């Protein structure tokens, strides 16, 4: 069991890395000019890791929420958008205060966390108290997604925007590939945040409580854990992480009113690939999805890169529905 | 503020082809969600493959429209099988995620530059329904009573679309009251019990997914015919959310639920739209608050809000039974 859990992701990564490299060594000599295939593959891999860790930050919250209350939050993408657009308002908007990006990002994350808490206290807690069924709650989340997304559209507009700071930078030269200091910082910060979430889950009391509620809600409640409080904390963490992911994504790509909804589908792919409800699975799965999306541009047009990631999701469901790190249990 | 114009707009929309098309797609969704308890968040994907199946056959391959209809139906069946095979054995949430992802993936594929030679990419395909309009038996002129008026062309689409709604409604009523219908309703209420009685729940769910998907495909074809064009961006995921709103509004798990829901939904939506437009034009609402270009966004937001409130306070909608809908909540 243990062996297999490590083996499958290792195999996936191996395929992703080796296939382009293998083709490249055959092509490398023939095309001496321009970036070689190996260089492009390395560049795509770096971009993929960077994209993957950003998806992972947002997907962890989605996965934690699913783990504790079994709700698939279709409105999670909107928390990402709101984080990014709120930071944009504070940083770059003509009507905003024009702060530097770093304080703007911190306030946006705090706002995301508050919004997460508000959604749990104002919407889900009353619905749970009314005994609304889970399936109906899924439909409420798509309503919430539609509502929030179009509120953002009215307030933010359709024009894509970028933050004022760190917009255009020269890439650091890493031999065949390059990365801008901004992207490197975002990647390293994202990894640090993910490690921080892992430490929170493993080492702190609230982290232990979250894992207990995910593993068995009734047992956790019976052993004196305040489940409502744990759920609230999970929403706060999820909202904050989603906002942070939104700021990062807006920083390396662009801020748009529907960025979250596009990311949502990649988050789903990552979460299912890693195993629904497993926070670490969400991290690994998102990383793989990010790499798949960027690597696909080596062979296929760039406007299809999200589509390949979603196809990967359907293939995983066919082959290994419990995901890479998911528990082997009956899920049918 | 001209209330006659607002009312006329709203009535035209509530009785018009678009309401009939959404009613058909929602009837398919009703079979999935209302009767079988399948959470299909990608009904728009079925509409897309239906509409494009027809358009590609005629515009790209130059074949007849009736072959196109068959291609559209076949694509919807294939899509349902592709989605159902991996997910129907799993928990309900997997189907929800996969269908929403598949709908969006299809949209991305059909609008990509890679598929442009076949699908027309972002421009889509136009003018492929000549065969349909050549059959129009309605004499030229315009028809209407009171505030509502339709051209002969619209009348023909209307007759076919509402005719299909009636036929499909009768067929569905027979189907859900047959032994097959009893089994799918029991799957919704308690799948384990159905399995323990020796029924192959997987096969029943698959049949339901295929049938409902085909209805989605038919709706997509009608939509393509009505506007004589398909473009990938008109098959936005929000269409599925509209379908859920009108289904819950009318009452899921009732034959007439999606029909009444669709008429009412489009009536109210267009009424609001038209009233807002008039209010802004006449200065009743200051254009600093909402500009005319933002009305679209406002109405999407209102649909979202309506969906939340409906599911929270009246999950059975107008016609449904509360007990049944709570049961399906699991």
Please give a structural write-up:
The complex is a heterodimer of chains A (about 325) and B (about 325). By secondary structure, chain A is mainly alpha-helical. Chain A has one domain (about 45-320): Orthogonal Bundle (ABC transporter involved in vitamin B12 uptake, BtuC). Chain A is about 75% helix and about 0% strand. Chain A contains twelve helices and two strands, in the order αααααββααααααα. A two-stranded antiparallel ribbon of chain A has the order 1-2. In chain A, a hairpin with a 2-residue loop joins strand 1 and strand 2. The longest helix of chain A has about 35 residues, at about 35-70. The two termini of chain A are about 20 Å apart. With about 325 residues, chain B is mostly helical. Chain B has one domain (about 5-235). In chain B, about 70% of the residues lie in helices and about 5% in strands. Chain B contains 15 helices and four strands. In chain B, the strands form two sheets. Chain B has a two-stranded antiparallel sheet. A two-stranded antiparallel ribbon of chain B has the order 2-3. The longest helix of chain B has 27 residues, at about 200-225. The radius of gyration of chain B is 20 Å and the shape is globular. The model of chain B has no long low-confidence stretch (mean pLDDT about 85). Chains A and B meet through helix 4, helix 5, helix 10 and helix 12 of A and helix 4, helix 5, helix 12 and helix 14 of B.
What tags apply to this protein structure?
heterodimer, A: 332 residues, mainly alpha, ABC transporter involved in vitamin B12 uptake, BtuC, 12 helices, 2 strands, 73% helix, globular, B: 330 residues, two-stranded antiparallel sheet, 4 strands, 72% helix
SSE layout and pairing:
The complex is a heterodimer of chains A (332) and B (330).
Chain A lengths: L1 H27 L8 H33 L6 H16 L9 H30 L3 H23 L15 E3 L2 E3 L1 H23 L1 H11 L1 H6 L4 H26 L6 H16 L4 H17 L9 H15 L13
Antiparallel strand pairs in A: 1-2
Helix pairs in contact in A: 1-2, 1-11, 2-6, 2-7, 2-9, 2-10, 2-11, 3-4, 3-5, 3-9, 3-10, 4-9, 6-7, 6-9, 7-9, 10-11, 10-12, 11-12
Chain B lengths: L2 H13 L1 H20 L6 H18 L4 H23 L4 H20 L4 H4 L5 E2 L3 H5 L7 E4 L2 E4 H25 L2 H11 L1 H6 L4 H27 L1 E2 L6 H14 L6 H25 L13 H19 L8 H6 L3
Antiparallel strand pairs in B: 1-4, 2-3
Helix pairs in contact in B: 1-13, 2-8, 2-9, 2-11, 2-12, 2-13, 3-4, 3-5, 3-11, 4-11, 9-11, 12-13, 12-14, 13-14
């Amino acid at each position: 069991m243990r062996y297999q859990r490590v083996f499958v992701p290792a195999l996936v990564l191996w395929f992703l890395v080796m296939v382009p490299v293998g083709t490249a060594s055959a092509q490398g000599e023939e095309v001496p000019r321009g970036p070689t295939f190996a260089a492009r593959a390395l560049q795509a891999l770096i971009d993929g890791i960077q994209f993957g860790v950003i998806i992972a930050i947002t997907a962890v919250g989605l996965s934690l929420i699913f783990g504790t209350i079994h709700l698939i939050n279709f409105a999670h993408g909107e928390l990402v958008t709101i984080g990014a657009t709120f930071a944009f308002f504070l940083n770059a908007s003509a009507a905003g205060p024009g702060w530097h990006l770093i304080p703007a990002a911190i306030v946006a994350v705090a706002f995301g966390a508050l919004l997460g808490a508000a959604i749990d206290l104002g919407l889900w807690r009353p619905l749970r108290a009314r005994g609304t069924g889970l399936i109906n709650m899924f439909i409420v989340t798509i309503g919430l997604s539609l509502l929030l997304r179009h509120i953002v559209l009215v307030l933010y507009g359709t024009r894509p925007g970028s933050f004022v700071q760190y917009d255009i930078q020269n890439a650091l030269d890493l031999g065949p590939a390059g990365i801008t200091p901004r992207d490197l910082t975002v990647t390293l910060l994202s990894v640090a945040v993910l490690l921080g979430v892992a430490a929170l889950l493993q080492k702190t009391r609230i982290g232990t409580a979250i894992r207990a509620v995910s593993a068995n809600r009734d047992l956790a409640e019976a052993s004196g854990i305040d489940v409502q409080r744990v759920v609230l904390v999970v929403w706060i963490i999820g909202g904050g992480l989603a906002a942070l992911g939104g700021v990062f994504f807006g920083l390396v790509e662009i801020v748009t009113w529907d960025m979250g909804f596009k990311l949502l589908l990649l988050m789903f792919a990552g979460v299912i690939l890693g195993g629904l409800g497993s926070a670490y699975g969400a991290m690994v799965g998102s990383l793989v999805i990010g790499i798949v999306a960027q690597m696909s541009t080596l062979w296929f047009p760039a406007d299809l890169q999200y589509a390949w990631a979603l196809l990967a999701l359907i293939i995983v469901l066919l082959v290994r529905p419990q995901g890479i790190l998911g528990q082997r249990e009956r899920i049918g | 503020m001209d209330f006659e114009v607002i009312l006329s707009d709203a009535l035209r929309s509530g009785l018009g082809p678009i309401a009939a098309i959404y009613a058909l797609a929602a009837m398919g969704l009703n079979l999935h969600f209302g009767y079988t308890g399948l959470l299909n968040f990608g009904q728009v994907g079925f509409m897309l493959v239906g509409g494009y199946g027809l358009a590609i056959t005629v515009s790209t391959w130059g074949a007849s429209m009736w072959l196109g209809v068959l291609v559209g139906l076949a694509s919807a069946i294939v899509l349902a099988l592709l989605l159902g095979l991996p997910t129907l054995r799993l928990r309900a949430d997997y189907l929800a995620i996969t269908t929403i992802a598949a709908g969006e993936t299809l949209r991305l594929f059909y609008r990509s530059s890679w598929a442009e030679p076949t699908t027309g990419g972002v421009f889509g395909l136009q003018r492929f329904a000549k065969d349909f309009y050549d059959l129009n038996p309605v004499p030229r002129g315009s028809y209407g009573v009171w505030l509502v008026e339709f051209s002969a062309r619209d009348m023909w689409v209307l007759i076919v679309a509402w005719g299909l709604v009636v036929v499909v409604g009768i067929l569905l009523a027979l189907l859900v009251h047959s032994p097959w219908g009893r089994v799918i309703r029991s799957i919704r209420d308690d799948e384990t019990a159905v399995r323990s009685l020796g029924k192959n729940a997987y096969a029943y769910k698959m049949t339901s997914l295929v049938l409902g998907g085909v209805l989605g495909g038919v709706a997509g074809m009608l939509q393509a015919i009505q506007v004589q064009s398909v473009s990938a961006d008109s098959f936005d995921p929000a269409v599925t959310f509209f379908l859920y709103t009108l289904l819950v509004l009318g009452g899921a798990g009732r034959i007439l639920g999606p029909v009444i829901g669709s008429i009412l939904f489009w009536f109210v939506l267009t009424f609001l739209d038209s009233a807002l437009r008039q209010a802004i034009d006449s200065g009743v609402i200051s254009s600093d608050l909402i500009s005319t270009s933002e009305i679209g966004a406002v109405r999407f937001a209102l649909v979202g809000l309506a969906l939340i409130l409906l599911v929270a306070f009246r999950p059975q909608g107008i016609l449904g039974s509360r007990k049944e809908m709570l049961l399906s909540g699991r």
